[in-house]
């Protein structure tokens, strides 16, 4: 909290009237408009076999980088704090003010993990439409952030189609524009956007080649060649970003097609760089001044100042800068009479009066906003990177070529096999986004019935989905982040290889054609900067191959969890895999357990089904082995189970191998073969069970040595580690237990008695892990606020205030952010609504005052609510 207060000091300075006083008195003529565009995106990080993001060590204390950045950026921008005198005076949904695009793969992840953040983004777009004559702030994005000019035309079209359809699915409307990954663009890419009805695009100023005024009715002007002298060279970034431009398409004879064009906005380069990298987001007043200066003295009206940055600028790259943005767009810019809008609305107000031609780039491959060499950053060792200067990027070209070779090899496979199933295989792929966003059985069946020319059976369903998944992963492997950084063994590049491995595996399952070895041989030409790896092939073998999975691995995971955690619920669902076990028989022999069983495997992604038999041995301590085979029939399974279970007790491990080999392959799955997330959960559960069995012992140590620890402290001696660790654990567990008991009956007295114990232990220098208590307390607080949102009662109001008092007195961090968001809604939609209705019952007035007091404890400036409540109470008393 101390660090947060220090960082917030800069944000509070922006609310100082002296700081925010305008340097100039703004004119009304010309009109001034401002657009701030945020490109919100994270590379897809899902394990391709389980479609979930696994734990990432570098993101700690968060689960993964998506979660890390969500808490720092995506979530705060839905309700950014405006603070005055250390108190919250307003919450602002920044997405309702700024132009934005979200990566579709990121939105899919948010839908699963943070649906309320997605709801805030969609709601903000609806609000922006109301304020901008029907034009929403959100625009679409090419699906998985590929570098469009480097992809073949078919993939470019699918990327745009998926981006549009995903946008329609999320926002309930058609997009007016599409963000291009890294703003990478050439003439072909613009043509693809025009083909799909996009009205405008946002580019960097250095991507413009030349410009000129145009007259849409001047036929002679249309016939002038592209190299006519009335063009102005702006190839050095000198194009004026304060107006929109129109990019027409020309035929091979240089004739302009007035019916084929797309409008272009070039963002203000210096302003955008200062926002992203120059520290400008530390002060809303400084931002406002920078926007004001960027207008200059335009000879046209209305003028536009627009900036485009990574959306993560606001909160992740610059912590708490979402608050600067909130004050800028809601208070500072309007105070200068600058209209905060979006590109589509401005385009309606001020259509282009100038034509532009963009740069073609090297070999016609276009240009981008983050590579001085066009698009070299994603295909060659051009020198652009964010890593160590001594690292080369000679691996980029071989990596792209290896993946292109795989993609091109999969095309005829898809066309031949898909041609047997679909009316039009490529149209089916273009429409597959409707399955990706809704994998329910009914939706998939409906979709397949529409696109398949054969009967939808179990077998044809699996083949159809696996073919389409093969194509999906063949596009995901070109996600731009794989080439952006400095080394082929980084997680972003490994992620692209994982998608390649999955695509190759699906092809092998479908046809028997194995392109994986060719992929590895091609990757051998990609040199690594890390001696341990040497080249891309070694990276693939050491990092990618161990992460791959097949149905046998999932069945083994099911059996291992049964063996190690027999008292836990049966794991009938592992990610998107459904397992139904039957006929499992376990026996205990001395210190180890062994069992034989079967499980039905079903994939919720591909609808693939298998029946597996397993033999699992737990030697205790997490040392477990599992053998898996295809289930044949009940009779064979029964015979196998009887023989193994009857003979196992008489045979030591080494002698058991002959029986195992008779029925199973020699492949033994161990704890290390579990998916990483489940491996950690199993180990944590085993450890928790151990700690639980020692709990009473730790409590005994603590209770029996309180006086001794006090003597140590009085003498200034360090408390022995044996006493300190056991006591810390015992107190933390007891507090969590008391809170859980109180959550059931609402009696907080048992929790309050813990305060003295906590204070005493903290005086001894003890450090507590209170995450469990924090979670319980947060749930209790959120529950009371939600209850009050449904109906305000003095009981719930009083309980909320007591819970906050417990949290404050015991210094328990209950994760204030989400409770504050709900409290803000309670104050404005609940408390104020009751006051405005003239609610004058004594009990209700007491409840309102109690809620206001609770909001005060949560950091809100509640003076206006108190005044309104007092006024209403006074009026009620006078009326009485």
Number of strands: 19
**What's the helix count?**
34
Report the C-alpha radius of gyration, rounded: 32 Å
Straight-line N-to-C gap: 47 Å
Overall structural class, as computed from helix and strand content, comes to alpha/beta
Task: Give the helix/strand layout.
Layout: H1 2-13, H2 17-20, E1 32-40, H3 65-74, E2 80-84, E3 87-92, E4 99-102, H4 104-113, H5 115-131, E5 138-141, H6 153-171, E6 178-179, H7 187-195, E7 200-203, E8 208-213, H8 219-222, E9 232-233, E10 245-250, E11 256-266, H9 269-276, H10 284-295, E12 303-310, H11 321-335, E13 339-340, H12 343-349, E14 354-358, H13 396-421, H14 425-431, H15 433-436, H16 441-451, H17 458-476, H18 481-484, H19 491-511, H20 516-523, H21 536-544, H22 551-564, E15 573-574, E16 577-589, E17 592-603, E18 609-618, E19 624-630, H23 634-647, H24 653-663, H25 676-704, H26 706-714, H27 721-745, H28 749-752, H29 754-763, H30 771-790, H31 794-809, H32 817-836, H33 842-857, H34 863-879
Parallel strand pairs: 1-4, 1-12, 1-13, 4-5, 5-6, 7-11
Antiparallel strand pairs: 2-3, 8-9, 8-14, 10-11, 15-16, 16-17, 17-18, 18-19
Helix pairs in contact: 4-5, 6-7, 10-11, 13-17, 13-19, 13-20, 17-19, 19-21, 20-21, 25-27, 27-29, 27-30, 30-31, 30-32, 31-33, 32-33, 32-34, 33-34
């Amino acid at each position: 909290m101390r660090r947060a207060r220090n960082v917030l000091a800069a944000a509070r300075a922006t609310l100082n009237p002296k700081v925010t006083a305008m340097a100039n008195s703004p004119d009304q003529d010309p009109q001034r408009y401002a657009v701030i565009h945020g490109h919100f995106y994270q590379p897809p990080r899902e394990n391709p076999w389980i479609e979930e993001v696994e734990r990432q060590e570098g993101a700690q204390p968060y689960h993964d980088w998506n979660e890390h950045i969500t808490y720092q950026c995506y979530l705060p921008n839905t309700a950014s704090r405006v603070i005055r005198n250390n108190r919250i005076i307003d919450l602002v949904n920044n997405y309702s003010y700024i132009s934005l695009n979200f990566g579709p793969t990121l939105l899919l992840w948010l839908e699963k993990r943070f649906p309320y953040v997605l709801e805030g983004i969609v709601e903000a777009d609806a609000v922006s439409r109301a304020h901008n004559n029907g034009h929403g702030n959100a625009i679409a994005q090419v699906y998985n952030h590929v570098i469009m000019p480097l992809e073949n035309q078919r993939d470019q079209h699918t990327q745009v189609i998926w981006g549009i359809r995903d946008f329609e699915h999320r926002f309930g409307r058609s997009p007016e524009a599409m963000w291009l990954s890294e703003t990478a663009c050439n003439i072909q890419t613009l043509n693809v956007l025009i083909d799909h009805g996009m009205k405008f695009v946002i580019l960097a100023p250095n991507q413009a080649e030349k410009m000129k005024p145009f007259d849409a009715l001047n036929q002679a002007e249309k016939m002038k060649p592209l190299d006519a002298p009335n063009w102005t060279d702006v190839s050095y970034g000198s194009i004026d970003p304060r107006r929109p431009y129109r990019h027409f398409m020309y035929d091979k004879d240089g004739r302009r097609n007035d019916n084929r064009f797309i409008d272009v906005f070039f963002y203000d380069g210096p302003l955008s760089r200062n926002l992203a990298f120059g520290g400008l987001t530390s002060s809303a007043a400084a931002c406002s001044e920078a926007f004001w200066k960027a207008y200059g003295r335009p000879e046209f009206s209305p003028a536009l100042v627009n900036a485009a940055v990574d959306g993560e600028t606001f909160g992740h790259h610059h912590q708490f800068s979402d608050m600067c943005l909130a004050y800028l767009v809601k208070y500072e810019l309007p105070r200068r009479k600058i209209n905060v809008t979006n590109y589509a609305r401005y385009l309606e107000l001020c259509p282009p009066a100038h034509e532009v031609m963009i740069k073609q780039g090297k070999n016609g491959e276009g240009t981008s906003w983050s590579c001085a060499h066009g698009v070299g950053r994603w295909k060659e060792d051009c020198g652009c990177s964010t890593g160590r200067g001594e690292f080369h990027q000679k691996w980029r070209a071989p990596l792209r070529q290896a993946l292109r070779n795989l993609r091109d090899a999969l095309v005829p496979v898809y066309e031949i096999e898909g041609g047997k199933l679909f009316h039009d295989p490529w149209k089916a792929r273009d429409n597959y986004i409707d399955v990706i966003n809704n994998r329910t059985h009914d939706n998939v069946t409906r979709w397949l019935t529409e696109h398949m020319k054969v009967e939808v059976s179990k077998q044809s369903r699996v083949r159809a989905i696996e073919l389409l998944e093969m194509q999906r992963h063949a596009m995901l492997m070109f996600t731009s982040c794989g080439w952006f950084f400095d080394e082929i063994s980084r997680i972003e590049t490994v992620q692209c290889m994982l998608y390649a491995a999955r695509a190759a595996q699906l092809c092998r399952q479908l046809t028997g054609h194995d392109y994986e070895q060719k992929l590895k041989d091609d990757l051998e030409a990609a040199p690594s900067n890390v001696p341990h790896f040497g080249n891309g092939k070694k990276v693939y073998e050491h990092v990618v191959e161990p992460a791959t999975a097949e149905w046998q691995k999932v069945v083994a995971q099911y059996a291992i969890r049964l063996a190690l955690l027999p008292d836990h619920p049966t794991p009938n669902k592992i990610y998107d895999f459904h397992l139904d076990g039957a006929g499992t028989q376990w026996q205990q022999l001395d210190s180890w357990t062994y069992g034989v069983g079967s499980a039905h495997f079903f994939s919720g992604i591909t609808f693939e089904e298998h029946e597996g038999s397993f033999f699992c041995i737990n030697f205790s301590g997490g040392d477990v082995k599992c053998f898996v085979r295809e289930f044949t029939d009940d009779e064979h399974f029964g015979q196998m189970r009887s023989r193994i279970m009857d003979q196992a007790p008489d045979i030591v491990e080494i002698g058991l191998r002959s029986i195992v080999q008779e029925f199973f392959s020699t492949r033994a799955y161990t704890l290390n073969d579990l998916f990483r997330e489940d491996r950690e959960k199993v180990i944590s559960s085993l450890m928790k069970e151990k700690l639980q069995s020692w709990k009473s012992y730790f409590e005994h140590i603590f209770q029996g040595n309180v006086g001794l620890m006090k003597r140590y402290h009085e003498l200034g001696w360090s408390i022995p580690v044996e006493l300190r660790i056991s006591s810390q654990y015992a107190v933390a567990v007891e507090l969590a237990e008391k809170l859980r008991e109180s959550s059931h009956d609402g009696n907080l007295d048992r929790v309050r008695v813990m305060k003295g114990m906590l204070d005493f232990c903290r005086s001894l220098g003890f450090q507590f892990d209170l995450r469990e208590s924090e979670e319980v307390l947060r749930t209790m607080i959120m529950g009371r606020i939600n209850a009050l949102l449904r109906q305000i009662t003095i009981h719930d109001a009083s309980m909320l205030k007591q819970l906050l008092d417990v949290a404050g007195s015991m210094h328990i961090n209950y994760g204030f952010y989400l409770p504050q968001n709900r409290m803000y809604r309670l104050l404005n939609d609940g408390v104020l609504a009751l006051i405005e209705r003239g609610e004058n019952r004594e009990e209700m007035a007491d409840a309102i005052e109690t809620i206001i007091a609770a909001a005060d404890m949560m950091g809100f400036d509640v003076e206006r609510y108190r005044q309104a409540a007092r006024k209403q109470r006074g009026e009620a008393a006078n009326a009485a």
